[in-house]
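Input (structure):
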């Protein structure tokens, strides 16, 4: 059960931030948080805390532009997800663990990002690489693409990398962070649902002249009026 919660985190957390969230979602998040562990209280605690703080500030601009293009207005949301983000989506039915391991090795953060730059500026970059990894999980839900990040111990990454079953996804983590790509950020030309009438008249516009469309509208109007008259007559009887 906990493993399923971990796999579906990227769908749960954004929903759980809405005040009207169902109690069940909060319960699932509480169970999920059992996988979260505290930072080690050793001589490097201050460094670890600084890294955790920088991790909490990661945003979409920190992602590689080659893997995640920033010109969202040139893409339809669903197309963008399928082309660039879906490979990081794993559910409880996922079978090819070796494929997941390859995907998790992809450097999805820009090496010139603000996050990496701050690590180097604060002399934390080497310590980060020795002790931490960031795992990415994605989902396409609620008219949004969710990019969900886990800050995990390097030792935990090595542990699960030895596994060849779905428990590979059941890792412990120090912190989580998510970013959302909302529908309005994309080209919404065909993402916006059309009414039946709009679809019908768009088709008619290609195959019949304007005069014919006017005739059809007039015909529909007359039929509606006649129907109402019949209903009134039936009520009188």
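Output (sequence):
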């Amino acid at each position: 059960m906990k493993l399923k919660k971990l796999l579906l985190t990227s769908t749960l957390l954004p929903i759980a931030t809405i005040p009207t969230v169902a109690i069940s979602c909060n319960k699932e998040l509480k169970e999920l948080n059992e996988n979260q562990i505290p930072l080690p209280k050793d001589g490097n605690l201050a460094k670890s805390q600084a890294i955790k703080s920088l991790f909490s500030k990661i945003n979409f601009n920190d992602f590689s532009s080659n893997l995640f293009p920033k010109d969202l207005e040139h893409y339809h949301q669903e197309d963008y997800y399928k082309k660039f983000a879906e490979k990081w989506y794993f559910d409880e039915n996922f079978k090819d663990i070796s494929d997941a391991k390859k995907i998790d090795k992809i450097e999805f953060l820009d090496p010139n990002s603000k996050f990496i730059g701050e690590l180097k500026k604060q002399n934390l970059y080497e310590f980060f690489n020795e002790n931490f990894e960031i795992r990415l999980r994605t989902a396409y839900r609620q008219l949004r693409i969710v990019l969900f990040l886990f800050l995990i111990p390097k030792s935990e990454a090595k542990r699960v990398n030895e596994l060849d079953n779905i428990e590979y996804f059941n890792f412990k983590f120090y912190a989580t962070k998510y970013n959302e790509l909302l529908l309005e950020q994309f080209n919404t030309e065909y993402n916006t649902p059309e009414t039946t009438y709009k679809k019908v008249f768009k088709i008619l516009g290609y195959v019949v002249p304007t005069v014919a469309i006017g005739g059809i509208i007039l015909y529909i109007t007359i039929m509606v009026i006649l129907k109402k008259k019949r209903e009134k007559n039936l009520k009188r009887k």
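Notes: The chain has eleven helices and three strands. The beta strands are 132-141, 144-153, 175-182.
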